[in-house]
Design goal:
This protein is an alpha/beta fold. It contains 12 helices and 19 strands. α7 links the parallel β9 and β10.
Length: 452
């Protein structure tokens, strides 16, 4: 008699647009609409869980962009979507939609692929280095659709979703009493979840820009507890309805500890199942020159781990580099992640510094910003005669000569000599003078080239 393990099929009992988690057969995942973000979360967002995106950059709206992907994916899969916003209909009309053309490669990359390198002919058939994950969508799988940022959701699709009650708009309506308004809003969300629990479709709850102007005047001293109370109560509601999940984005001004105090980001992560920051370079232009091909850095605060001790992302995420699926980088530490927004899609990928420190061109001249001084005190400055030329950077050398120190022999400590000749030589010996040592201070206009 032979024994065979019974493995249930992945999509036997799962609703459309879902997958079974590879870490737990009892956990059902849904896609966020971004394949790379699904990989970071461990395959997708589990049902009955909440995720929050923090985008502290005031010059961009990457948090709302992630929410639009979430809404578009739900409508494309035929799932119910509830948008908690006073102008939720306009928010839904601004969501992206699928395109007939395959958008796996950017326009710039497709042009580069046509030009083959002739000198490296032996490497033409080798696999190219990948910094992100592919969508992996097949004709029979609608788990994660490929959306195009240049196209908008058709009005016919919007009308059909509204008529079939698959698109629900829930206003915030916060008055002067913020705590009472939040409690009333939680009651409205519970009513929507209770009605949708009787249906077979899943419910996606989208809350964009939590803490914005439509949520009232949220003062840091009095409203921190109100926001934390809302996040905790929402997670408690999701635990009661296993066929629902929520995606939240915070307003930019409440995404930093300057608003919520010390430990604010950690508190938000504790009260949600997943928390990720997308720090754009709009507030720090110096990072734009350091990472010219990216728009911001990604920081992971918390990852979903329902019914498990460790998150599934630790074992099954390719971008993070902790699992065996990461290839040669497995076990070498977690990768640094960044994001970029191309003309057609939003991508999360690994980020690496170039050999020359993060720029694409080889640097051969010092910088013109800082000066490194290795010694203080009076010195003679020696500069290059060509330093006065315009358009050229220079480096200066400061040379300091130590004073000569005379060393004399102590007659009391001298030992008796055997011969008179040796005694005469000791008496007439001149003091020994040490050679002056040079102390060189190197002043560079670009100290990052000369890292001592």
């Amino acid at each position: 008699m032979s024994f065979k393990r019974r493995i249930p099929p992945d999509h036997a009992n799962s609703p459309p647009g879902t997958r079974i988690s590879p870490s737990s057969p009892s956990t059902v995942l849904i896609s966020t609409g971004i394949p790379s973000l699904d990989d970071v979360l461990g395959g997708g967002l589990p049902l009955s869980c909440s995720s929050v995106v923090l985008a502290p950059d005031h010059h961009s709206a990457y948090g709302d962009l992630v929410q639009k992907y979430f809404v578009s994916q739900g409508i494309a899969c035929g799932q119910q979507v509830c948008i908690v916003d006073d102008d939720g209909l306009s928010f839904a009309r601004g969501c992206m939609w699928t395109s007939v053309v395959n958008n796996e490669e950017d326009d710039g990359r497709s042009a580069q692929n046509d030009e083959r390198i002739k000198i490296a002919w032996r490497y033409e058939k080798m696999k190219m280095f990948q910094t992100t994950v592919a969508s992996g969508r097949s004709s029979k799988d609608d788990y994660c659709h490929t959306f195009d940022l240049s196209s908008r959701i058709p009005e016919s699709v919007m009308q059909d979703a509204s008529d079939t009650n698959r698109l629900i708009i829930l206003g915030v309506h916060v008055d002067e009493n913020v705590k009472a308004s939040i409690t009333r809003l939680l009651g409205n969300i519970q009513d929507v979840l209770s009605v949708s629990s009787s249906d077979t479709a899943l419910m996606r709850l989208c809350i964009p820009a939590l803490g914005s102007a439509q949520w009232g005047d949220l003062e840091p001293a009095a409203s921190v507890q109100d926001v934390l109370y809302f996040l905790h109560s929402l997670r408690r509601l999701l635990r009661r309805y296993p066929r629902a999940c929520a995606s939240i984005s915070l307003a930019p001004h409440i995404c930093s500890e300057a608003w919520g105090g010390h430990g604010w980001i950690h508190k938000v992560g504790w009260l949600t199942d997943a928390a990720i920051s997308m720090n754009g370079f709009g507030g720090n232009p110096s990072l734009v020159a350091l990472f010219p091909s990216h728009h911001g850095l990604v920081q992971i605060h918390k990852l979903p781990a329902p019914q498990t001790i460790l998150p599934a992302s630790d074992k099954y995420s390719t971008l993070r580099g902790l699992s065996s699926s990461a290839g040669a980088n497995a076990g070498s530490g977690e990768n640094n992640l960044a994001f970029k927004c191309t003309r057609k899609r939003l991508i999360l990928e690994t980020i690496h510094l170039d050999v020359e420190g993060g720029i694409t061109e080889r640097r051969t001249t010092p910088s013109t910003n800082n000066t490194i001084s290795l010694n203080a005190g009076p010195a003679h400055e020696m500069t290059d005669g060509h330093a006065s030329n315009k358009g050229r950077s220079h480096a200066a050398l400061e040379v300091e000569f130590e004073k000569a120190v005379a060393v004399t022999a102590d007659p009391q400590e001298s030992q008796p000599v055997a011969s008179s000749r040796s005694a005469a030589l000791d008496a007439t010996t001149t003091p020994k003078v040490k050679r002056p040592r040079k102390r060189v201070a190197f002043q560079s206009d670009r100290p990052d080239l000369y890292d001592f």
